[in-house]
Amino acid sequence: MVTRGFVGRRRAPGDTGTRLPPGQYLTQDFPILQIGPNPEVDLATWRFTLREGARPIKSWTWQEFEALPRTAWHGDIHCVTKWSKFDTAWEGVSVDDLLADAGIAAPTDYLLAEGYDDYTTNLPVADLVGGQAMIATRYAGAPIEPDHGGPARLFVPHLYFWKSAKWLKGLRFTRKDEAGFWEMRGYHMYGDPWREQRYTGD
Amino acid sequence: MTEIQPSAPLVFRWQEARIAAIAPVTARVKSFRLAVAFADGYRAGQHVDVRLTAQDGYQAQRSYSIASAPDGSGTIELMVEGLEDGEVSGYFFDVAAVGDVIELRGPIGGSFSWDAPDGGPLLLVGGGSGVVPLLSMLRRRALAAPDLPALLIYSTRTRTEAIALAELEARHRDEPGFTLVLAVTREAGGRRIGSDTVAAALASLGSPTRVFVCGANPFVSAASNHLVAAGLARGVIRTERFGG
């Protein structure tokens, strides 16, 4: 439906248009979205745990986690609240390297990422392996600030950013695709920005 | 926290909404009343997504908090702040007229929302236009739980920039159990929200079981830290942030 009198600001020339998914706008800021205050996360007691259902598979201390192989990633991120940010730089431990260190292949096809703030979000394992995702511990060359999910957050840049859970405490493999916090509240189960999968039914 | 736990997936479909009324709120903020099908079916604090489409198919979307509470008018109220060079707010300020139709979907969001059965005491902390979803909660409270203790700490740069100030001051005067604490930051004798503001609010209100904080990022971070430092459990605090 055409909105009477609406012209709109066309996307900037150059590659902005092709890099911006539908319905998104470019921001230079780094907005923060979360459901409550930052949780208290102490590196001395921090643990990262892989689970299959309730059963722990392997757990890492911060020191052990920092000793894992490092992966860097450079590119664009997209939030369901419509902002996109270009040319961000992240570093962390790829999910591939994490599974290798645990000595396992993914036991199921889905998982729930779990945060220290009890936030959860669901993802297919196929979207996390093959170099597509990491547990990030550094942003723009420095430790990730608490406001942006530090000390460690999930990082899955090809999906809307609510999938990149902040203050990550673990990944829990599930037999089925179980809805996480926002997914239970009407957000899309998968969340591909290029197909504009913001909400259920999109 | 208690909130809606839908058993079936929610589906937000685009729908047409006619602009029923436009009114100035402050020099930079306008109120838009929109006729929608869900006018009696939303929770205070929820938001809608608005979509505008140009002749050539180009579209822009933004999210706006609902300022109203269900009131039998068949409309919801949005408050739009005119941003410099704002693509969508510019349309609302310079083009939109009563009778025009836009597309929107919602109501969206269950985490940052409140209704009478959720109870209280209710502590609301808003900065600038972040007061809009909190205004919705106060309007809901007045209709559905007028005896519930509630307190709003509202940080505004100046009194003339404060949204719905006359309404908030009238509620403070007329509604037992509601207290408005205005923190004016850019006027003589003004102050920012500090640990003293929070301590005084908690002493007056009692221990809140529901806390909602909304505003720009630095404001919400600072206010949340004051609340946690004052001893509030993180789990009772819900935040909503906007801007960079």
Write down the overall mean pLDDT of chain B: 92
- Number of structural units classed as domains of chain B: 2
What class, by secondary structure content of chain B?
alpha/beta
Low-confidence stretches of chain A: none
* Total E-strand runs of chain B: 11
Query: Biggest interface, and residues per chain?
Result: A-B, 40 and 52 residues
The CATH superfamily of the largest domain in chain B appears as Nucleotide-binding domain of ferredoxin-NADP reductase (FNR) module
For the sheet with most strands of chain B, the description reads: 6 strands, antiparallel
Shape assignment of chain A: globular
Remind me, CATH topology of chain A? Sulfite Oxidase, Chain A, domain 2
First and last CA, distance of chain A: 17 Å
Helix content of chain B: 10-25%
Strand content of chain B: 25-35%
CATH superfamily of chain A: Oxidoreductase, molybdopterin-binding domain
**How much strand of chain A?**
25-35%
Protein name (chain A): Protein-methionine-sulfoxide reductase catalytic subunit MsrP
Organism (chain A): Methylobacterium trifolii
Region (Disordered) (chain A): 1-21
InterPro entries (chain A): OxRdtase_Mopterin-bd_dom, OxRdtase_Mopterin-bd_sf
Q: What does this 3D model show about the protein?
A:
The complex is a heterodimer of chains A (202) and B (244). In chain A, 8% of the residues lie in helices and 32% in strands. Chain A is mostly beta strands. Chain A has one domain: Alpha-Beta Complex (Sulfite Oxidase, Chain A, domain 2). In chain A, the strands form two sheets. In chain A, strands 1, 4, 5, 8, 9 and 10 form a six-stranded mixed β-sheet that branches. A five-stranded mixed β-sheet of chain A has the order 3-2-11-6-7. The longest helix of chain A has 8 residues, at 95-102. Chain A is globular. Chain B has 244 residues and is an alpha/beta fold. Chain B folds into two domains: 15-108, Translation factors (Elongation Factor Tu (Ef-tu), domain 3, Beta Barrel); 116-242, Nucleotide-binding domain of ferredoxin-NADP reductase (FNR) module (Rossmann fold, 3-Layer(aba) Sandwich), CATH 3.40.50. In chain B, the strands form two sheets. In chain B, strands 4-3-6-1-2-5 form a six-stranded antiparallel β-sheet, with helices on one face. The longest helix of chain B is centred in the middle third of the chain and has 13 residues, at 132-144.
